[in-house]
Design brief:
Elements lengths: L1 H32 L3 H16 L3 E9 L3 E11 L8 E10 L4 E11 L12
Antiparallel strand pairs: 1-2, 2-3, 3-4
């Protein structure tokens, strides 16, 4: 009888371990389906550079949307001397939920040394 009990305990333990393994596997699978925010940032910068030939200098906006992700990326468009006269651009970049670039557009172009114009009174 003790052999039967040991066999049942062993089987129960194996089933429990199998259940834990499948949960861990499904958790990993879900994590693999949707990249982390840092992975999305890296993918967006790399894909934009590949398409435009311009390296991203910074990401000034990053947001998760219903469709995926939306970023605003700052790139150096034209290098000048002195550096404060170089032309920069902001690109709005859209990615799907897997982090694949689905579209981009330039939304602003400016000299590196210039700040945005102040708007008083909402004008």
């Amino acid at each position: 009888m003790s052999n039967t009990k040991n066999t049942q305990d062993s089987q129960g333990s194996q089933e429990e371990q199998g259940s834990q393994k499948s949960r861990t596997s499904s958790d990993r699978h879900r994590a693999a389906e949707r990249p982390s925010p840092m992975e999305v940032l890296r993918q967006a910068r790399g894909q934009l550079a590949e398409l435009t030939g311009m390296e991203a200098e910074s990401v000034s906006s990053f947001e998760q949307t219903e469709e995926g992700w939306q970023l605003e990326v700052e790139v150096l468009e034209l290098e000048r001397v002195p550096d404060t006269m170089s032309l920069m651009a902001s690109y709005q970049v859209e990615l799907d939920s897997q982090g694949q670039l689905t579209g981009y557009r330039r939304v602003r172009r400016y000299e590196r040394g210039r700040s945005d114009a102040r708007r008083s009174g909402g004008r």
